[in-house]
Task: inverse folding
């Protein structure tokens, strides 16, 4: 009996040991699997596979939440998810703190925790993090700078003692590294938080005494005096900066601006001209000065001869600098001297023939100047250099079109092979439809428009042009209305599209609807007067224009292209006259026709409408 009890007890003990070993084995297996998933997640992060990183990290955390690295990794995922609730976020934030303070030497982890603390507006934690990193990495400057900033934030939040701690840190940095513009900037920022003007002045004067022969320091000190509205002291230091370094363009411009601010136009001009004629000043600095100067003089058109003379002198001094020609071209473009602007861009492409943007801008300006002969020459050369740029064959075809050479315009467009299905190619095919429409080939025009729309169903220009062509050529008016309705649904503030809408209704003899939409068109046109004193000027936009900007001043070219679509045109005014006439308002119709004829005096149909005061179909 005793032996049987002993056997039973031994079996029970073995079972308990086996159960314990099995549980331990399960736990070890889960930890090993969690560690493996964690390493896989890290690899996914290195490969920028962030969705996979998040999935793997969450699975690792589910297996082993006691591992600080895994918990922190999961925490970063949880905090990155916008749907994370506040309790989960707080838990993840705590994991980040636990992970860092378990290994305060981990600088990267501390940086990340500092970012989280700032995001959480946990400024006490922010100070604690940077105090810790400063103690573990005293050889680094960044923890000190961040700690000083954290103290300043604490001061703003109500901790009055934190301000002196921040200043003490800057003093400590200065003792270790010496004075510098960068450090003085940080100290001045701190003084500004407390609005301590006296401390700012003491700091910049001390910096000036520390480096009395440093032009950058003199410029910095002058800038601070100017900020403090002490222009005389600012001018004193700007003078010193210019004397110390005759190549420091910012100093010359700062001094010029002081004169401008003081209302001394003579001094302003003198400084600008002195800087621009300085052989020691780099071209980039001169261009920076010139941009500001031209912008200032641009308001006064009487200064035009002076600006032209200045550009001429600069081009003689720096004959190989394309950017000077680019800037001059931009100025000439702004004053609507398109031929002169094109001349300047020809120099630019000669100096930088590999600049595709320069060729784009040159052709843009030649189009404005309506210089078809040069458009053909430079368009063909650009097309040879950059055969994938679809803008160039459009320019060539437009030049032939303006010269009345239908065959060559069509041949140019037909010679371009479209191999893909990009929006740019769809736009080119749409233009191809315009060429066929202009040539009177109705079948090819409609087929090509439909192809462009198939390539890009959101091709608003193709939809508009197809609708307009169907309306004017007696095509499918219901289809035309569907097309233009799609356009208006997406862009109802474009007068070109609205005019097409009105014209489709006119052709469908729905004159009431046509009247409503032509009135909207007229209101959308910029500067549209309510009486008959309309502007007698309009600009035709070359289809496909999208030049790359070469200088800051050229940036408004594309905006001007868009604005041109809103300018009143002869076509819109003629349409308005026709629509008003069919709505029983012949007197108003006649006024519209007269204004249209003033813009297009060679239009024979308009001449007949005005002469006979009535509508003619053809």
Result:
């Amino acid at each position: 009996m005793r032996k049987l009890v002993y056997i039973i007890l031994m079996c029970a003990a073995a079972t308990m040991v086996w159960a314990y070993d099995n549980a331990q084995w399960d736990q070890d297996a889960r930890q090993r699997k969690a560690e493996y998933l964690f390493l896989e997640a890290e690899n996914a992060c290195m490969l920028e596979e962030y969705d996979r990183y998040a999935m793997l990290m969450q699975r690792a955390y589910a297996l082993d939440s006691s591992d600080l690295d895994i918990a922190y990794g999961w925490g970063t995922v949880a905090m990155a998810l916008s749907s994370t609730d506040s309790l989960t976020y707080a838990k993840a934030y705590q994991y980040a703190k636990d992970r860092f303070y378990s290994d305060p030497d981990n600088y990267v982890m501390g940086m990340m925790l500092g970012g989280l603390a700032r995001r959480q507006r946990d400024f006490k934690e922010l100070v604690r993090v940077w105090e810790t990193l400063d103690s573990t990495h005293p050889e680094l400057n960044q923890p000190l700078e961040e700690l000083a900033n954290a103290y300043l934030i604490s001061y703003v939040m109500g901790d009055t003692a934190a301000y002196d701690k921040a200043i003490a840190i800057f003093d400590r940095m200065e003792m270790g590294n010496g004075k510098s513009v960068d450090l003085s900037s940080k100290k001045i920022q701190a003084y500004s938080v407390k609005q301590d003007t006296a401390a700012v002045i003491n700091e910049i004067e001390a910096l000036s005494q520390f480096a009395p022969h440093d032009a950058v320091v003199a410029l910095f000190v002058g800038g601070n005096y100017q900020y403090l509205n002490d222009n005389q002291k600012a001018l004193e230091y700007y003078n010193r900066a210019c004397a110390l370094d005759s190549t420091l363009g910012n100093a010359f411009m700062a001094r010029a601006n002081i004169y401008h601010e003081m209302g001394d136009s003579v001094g302003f001009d003198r400084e600008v001209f002195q800087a621009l004629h300085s052989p020691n000043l780099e071209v980039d600095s001169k261009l920076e000065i010139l941009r500001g100067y031209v912008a200032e003089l641009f308001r006064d058109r009487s200064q035009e001869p002076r600006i032209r003379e200045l550009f001429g002198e600069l081009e003689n001094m720096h004959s190989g600098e394309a950017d000077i020609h680019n800037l001059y071209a931009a100025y000439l473009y702004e004053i609507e001297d398109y031929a002169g602007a094109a001349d300047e861009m020809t120099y630019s492409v000669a100096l930088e023939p590999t600049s595709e943007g320069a060729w784009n801008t040159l052709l843009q300006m030649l189009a404005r100047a309506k210089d078809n002969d040069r458009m053909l020459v430079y368009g063909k050369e650009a097309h040879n250099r950059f055969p994938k740029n679809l803008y160039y064959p459009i320019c060539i075809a437009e030049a032939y079109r303006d010269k009345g050479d239908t065959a060559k315009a069509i041949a140019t467009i037909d010679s371009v092979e479209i191999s893909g299905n990009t929006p740019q190619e769809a736009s080119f095919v749409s233009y191809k439809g315009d060429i066929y429409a202009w040539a009177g080939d109705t079948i090819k025009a409609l087929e090509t428009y439909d192809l462009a729309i198939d390539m890009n169903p959101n091709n608003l220009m193709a939809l508009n042009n197809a609708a307009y062509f169907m309306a004017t050529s007696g095509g499918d008016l219901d289809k035309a209305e569907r097309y233009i309705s799609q356009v208006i649904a997406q862009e109802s503030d474009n007068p070109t599209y609205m005019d097409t809408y009105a014209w489709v209704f006119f052709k469908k003899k729905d004159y009431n609807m046509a009247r409503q939409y032509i009135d909207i068109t007229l209101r959308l046109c910029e500067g549209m007067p309510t009486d008959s004193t309309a502007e007698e000027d309009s600009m035709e936009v070359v289809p496909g224009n999208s030049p790359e900007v070469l200088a800051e001043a050229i940036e408004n070219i594309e905006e001007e292209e868009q604005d041109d679509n809103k300018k009143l045109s002869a076509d819109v005014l003629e349409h308005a006259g026709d629509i008003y006439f069919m709505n029983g308002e012949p007197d108003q119709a006649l006024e519209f026709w007269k204004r249209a004829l003033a813009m297009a005096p060679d239009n024979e149909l308009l001449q007949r409408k005005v002469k006979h005061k009535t509508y003619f179909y053809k």
Observations:
- The CA atoms of residues 238 and 255 lie 6 Å apart.
- Confidence is low (pLDDT under 50) at residues 13-20, 527-564.
- The chain has 32 helices and no strands.
- Residues 2-46 form the longest helix (45 residues).
